Amino acid sequence: MISENIIEKTLKENIRNPDAYFVFATQTAADLWADRITETSEVHAVATERFIAWDTFKGESIRSRHQDKKAVPSAMRAIFTSQLIAENAAAPFLKSCIAPEYAKTASGFADWISSFLPGLSLWKKYFDLSKSAPDSEDKDLLVIYEKYRAFLEKHSLFDPAWETPPFSADGKHYFIFFPEILSDYAEYKKILEDAKSDITVIHLPEKDGSPSPSVDFFPNARTEIRNIALRLRSLHDNSKIGWQNIAVHVPDMESYGAYIDRELELFQIPHVMRSAKALSATGAGNFFSQAKQCVSDGFSFSSVKKLLLNTELPWKDGESIRQLISFGKANNCICSFSYDGKNIDVWNESLRRNSSEKRAEDFYVSLHEKLTRLTGAQTFSEIRERYFDFRETFFDMENCPEKSDRIISRCISELSALIDLEQEFPDCRAPDCFSFFTKYLDGKAYLAQTEERGVQILPYKMGACAPFACHIIADASQSALSVVYKELSFLRDDKRKRILNREDANVTEDFLRLYAMNSYSQPVYCTASAKTFTGYAQASSYLIENNRTKESAEELHAGDFYFAEKKWFAGGVDSKNSPFPEKISISQKKSEARWEECQDKGNESRNSGGTAVLSQKIQKIHFTESGKIRISETNLKRFYQCPRFWLQKTVSGLEQQNNEAELMDYFAMGNLYHKILELYCTELKKKNLPVHYEAEKNALNDNYRQILLQSIDNAIQIEKNSFLAKELLKTTKTALSAEIEKTVIKFSQIFEGCIVYEMEKECFYEIPGKNYVCTGRIDCLLYDDSAAEFILVDFKTSSVPQPLYYGNPHEPEENEEFELPDFQMPMYLYLLENQNPPVEAENCGFFSVKAGECTPVTGKTLFERVNAVSKKKNPPESVTKEQFAPTMQKFKECMELYAQKITETDFSVTNENQDFNTCNRCDFRAVCRRVFNISRQD
């Protein structure tokens, strides 16, 4: 901060001269100085047109000699580039800028080529002076230079950067402030120096030996941003500086902007984000890119979902959208595909097979037709016409949010500008108008206008010349603050420096000096952090570092009322003897009031009310009509895994959301194998055929094989399989049949000669004198005629549950404790024993349909069958009914305790049964929020 600002001094001396015009690097600085001079000088009003930005000055006062030609619009440069790339794709002539092998997919080079077109004239000048032999890159640049010059001549255009135009003062005198920070000042330096009578150039004063600004260096970006918020509050509360007179400058607005916005909201600091975004980076402005993505991706699920779930668009029929997205997810509408030379739209094929989805089908057909027409427009005029047709069908503009309405209107305004060019240059068109338009929106910045006042959050460099009571620079790291202007930046550094024969202009320190100069009430305040949001950093070498990484939390958070409240609560009993923080935020106050309100209701009334509601819901879901608890092995397993897990899964109905469509479900193939085996065994039962295979050939005979193939066809065509899943399974049917046949052969080897007694049998047992009933579905019950015994088989698509029984089979000792068993086989055996007539199934086991292996649980006969097929050296010993009795007893005790806990609505957890491993892999850990201390004593 200096005694008198050089800008303010110049303005005061010349403000009364109506012909004096003041040129600043940005319009932001110009507007703010126009406001400030009315406060610090004798004048109370100024003509704002006298305060102009450098770009405005160039356009108005440095005019081309070509009065009969028009300056080339940026859109015309882009059109030329798109034509150049299309021409090169048809017959490659560029060898270095675009490698020939990438010529047909080179649209990504368009922005880069457009960016260096203005610099080609300067390059040509220095290249000719160097008199060096052209390499492949130079040859490409010469070709582009000649084609661009011919393009300009053909359409009577000129590129301002290719000209050395004269200066026209028009009777005005211009004061240009600090041109050394302008990236293109070197191109205009001679013109302005030759017009000294009409132009006064004001440079930064020589260094006077005063120390450089300091920078507070924090351990991480979060602490840094918290400190900025605290500094802002201090400036306002203690130094009495108005919010609107403070500016925070952010080099990396994309990474830091959202965090700064949130932190200032928390500390109740009014602020205005002055960061422009590309139109296509906004939700509403992204419509055109999303529409293009839909069509180019063949209406893939992800592209359709992104478009239809864009909440910033004013969709008219929300219900149809929800139905369509839900249908696409459930029916695997991932993408369209080609098969046997035909293009198949997976949405159409899936929807027309579901008559109940007529509304969603009509919506999709209309969406497909309108979007295809829109993106296929051949001219910009057609794009506008077809957009309004689409809007009439799908958008409700009367209920469109004002923000979205403004953005969409701006997009259409940009489209209208392209239409004007199209009409002015009818023989000059982009090869793909819609793709060009979406790309064009990427380069159009949009800054929403607002009447809000507060701290100005500005991109770094924008407000360097602007007057603020205090400038604050966030992320003042070496890389973030570096400002180096590279002429002909499209060339390699070694080649560029050889041609120009001068060093690049480094104006980093000039910007810091300007911030210090224009912070007129308080010194400029800079912060940086060792750990940023994108990596590690060090403070700028142009600043004096104040290392704050070793300070205590109390020192770093002095004045932080959130930290003070947290510290007070952490004090426990001792906190009652210390005063509560003097200041708290509105959000803290509301939270405290809500907490007190809850306390006033009384624990007893709240708990009893909640318990009553919970009991009603449990009764509705888990009780029979006669008022008894319905128990299944699945519910037992979930409850003993964790009562809270059971509650969320079976009562609350919570589940992890998956908004993506999948090609096939994770368990789809296993479920398909399970279904095939089920249908195969069911058919054997219908035809009174025993389980059989030809041992000498280790294969199924023709009759059994035909039954299996028909079962495969039926399993694929079951209704729950989506169209895409069915088509995919058809293409792999040969391999699938071979694999499942191997599984059936292994099944037949183990159960050769057995008769299929029951398949998918629903069992129900109402236990006399108890308040609960047992239910279950038994997969397969076989009868071994040779042993006169039943064999219970449960098909598993994945792993076999463990443990099957308590420890190793043995006679239980008195008061012996065992781990909980898997409840499935005890439940099924218990149900079979209590059917009418009862079924004594001593033999039971699990059959893995993927592995083709059987894991016996009990029964000598089943163990012998399995061991005979596996031929292991050390086969497992069989488990008798008597040895399995403790497991059955424990199972019954678990049912009794389960019924008691449900009746009492007791869902408490214990550290023994619900340990860290159980909770860590639970889907509901974020809801439950149970806390563990790891490797700590407290």
TrEMBL record:
Q: Which InterPro entries match?
A: P-loop_NTPase, PDDEXK-like_dom_sf, PDDEXK_AddAB-type, Restrct_endonuc-II-like
Cite the PD-(D/E)XK endonuclease-like domain residue spans from the record: 630-929
User: Where does the source fall among the domains of life?
Assistant: Bacteria
Q: Which residues form a coiled coil?
A: none
- What is this protein's name? PD-(D/E)XK nuclease superfamily protein
Organism name: Treponema porcinum
Source species taxonomy: Bacteria, Pseudomonadati, Spirochaetota, Spirochaetia, Spirochaetales
